Amino acid sequence: xxPRRPTEDELIARYFAPLAGAAALGLTDDxxxxxxxxxxxxxxxxxxxxxxxxxFPDDPPAxxxxxxxAVNASDLAAKGAVPVGFLLTLALPDDxxxxxxxxxxxxxxxxxxxxxxxxxxxxxxxxxGPLTLSVTALGEVxxxxxxxxxxxxxxxxxxxxxxxxxxALGLLLRRRPGQRWAAGLTLDRRVHLIDRYLxxxxxxxxxxxxxxxxxxxxDVSDGxxxxxxxxxxPLGLSARVEAADVPLSPAARSVxxxxxxxxxxxxxxxxxxxxxxxxxxxxxPLFLDGLAQAGLSGAAIGTVIEGTEPxxxxxxxGVRRFERASYSHF
Amino acid sequence: xxPRRPTEDELIARYFAPLAGAAALGLTDDxxxxxxxxxxxxxxxxxxxxxxxxxFPDDPPAxxxxxxxAVNASDLAAKGAVPVGFLLTLALPDDxxxxxxxxxxxxxxxxxxxxxxxxxxxxxxxxxGPLTLSVTALGEVxxxxxxxxxxxxxxxxxxxxxxxxxxALGLLLRRRPGQRWAAGLTLDRRVHLIDRYLxxxxxxxxxxxxxxxxxxxxDVSDGxxxxxxxxxxPLGLSARVEAADVPLSPAARSVxxxxxxxxxxxxxxxxxxxxxxxxxxxxxPLFLDGLAQAGLSGAAIGTVIEGTEPxxxxxxxGVRRFERASYSHF
Lengths: 330, 330
What we know:
homodimer; alpha+beta; 4-stranded mixed beta sheet; 10 helices; 12 strands; 33% helix; globular
């Protein structure tokens, strides 16, 4: 006889209670209870991920748990918010195992601790299909200070944190390790790219500089080119970006040297989880200095301009526009 | 060629933007932004429902939408909270139709209006399986006043709102309309029972009386007997309930007259979405009066006692205890 599966209450006590913050009330009530900080607004975001669509069912369970929270924390960071907690819906496939859950909860718990974002509540159901995770994350900003997506102005400089394109290349490697262009990559660089895909690092420490200096911001989750268009197009704005100024990791630079055509994957691939911001020209040095003081790198890569064309990327020998500039999972 | 399916942005603009409150920022940003009322705590709950598990895939789309929000609003009500908004994850099966979405959004929107609980944000994904809905609902209570689940005291009276068991009978009828015991039911009473299953009516107006008078409360979602045990057992408490005092609708009374054995379904069936409360004996008249002033019926049905046995129900000719007292979807 196979070992008895734990009940929902046992799962909660064993794997999820350790992730819970004070607002979760020990996960023994029907709701969590949060005392918001006076003088602050709550920032709320929800993102769901589905096995086989947003991640590989055989990704390490701890990575799946970490990423489910990271993608939401990344939204909070880009809005200038500090995380306060999250709620989880865990829809399990019929063949779930306790070993999966253990790893998943470990990764999720490590992320909750790293991001200062404890569990407030949750629901566990049978999915009747693939593993599906939905996370609602809450953060706080001083009242009226959430950094908006649709508020850039012509002349603002386009800035990004970190490096762009690593996760897109990591995903290509995750799909097919034998990529011709990867033959010359050191093991360290391969690992770097795949790690950037599996383990997004939300730029929580950028929140202060964003609140202080950015006109507008969002996280880069669906590809730089597409997300830039999302930030500007509804305002009748566009951008001119110097592709050479887009910050790349040493690993991405090696890849580009071997296969220059991958610049498209770098500029349009998803899963960067960096922050994209529009910053008034005069404030750029202060913004980049604020990021640096928070231990983050940042770069100005272009300028907001009037126009309804998709943002253009100046690359060696010409101009690129991406009409289908981002990936839609839907 | 079949008509083009709308994009996610088009779906949001067409069907979900009309449901959005101010905190949703027009659903055009990466997060919602809520200004909590000073001096209040936030109450947060999440519940997911899956087609084929928690509802019938061929339930009316508007009913599915309404119920997804109602089951969460019911949790808020039982905690003494007033709804402020919700976030939705909509995981669509591959064969979703626009006509389904239209009906779903209509039912969800009517519920959001009825419950004073507008949309704050959402995410739409492909489910890779059945339709799955996850709702995170937020409410407010004056600071420190959330009504807890695990706070009943020996001697407290057990009270419930409304009537118990209708939805369980409605579910039996929904599954098999030709139930022998239903032969003598008028059409009105059949409709009443099925309606109670399809369209839970969260007891939002009970929130004030609960905050003012209840020691403890929760909503009855998994069956009266089981939920009563959940409220008391972790405290080393039990209850003695007079089955004859459990309020039944005229429809449920007719059913019981035809088939007395259905008392078990009434006491252990789920989906009532009434409120179960423990109220100090001296406060019961005030509590019931508070409910009445809010337009709700209520009844005292038993007493909290010391003991680790499951709550007992005194029925004609004896005592019933339900060891497996509630339904687990998990």
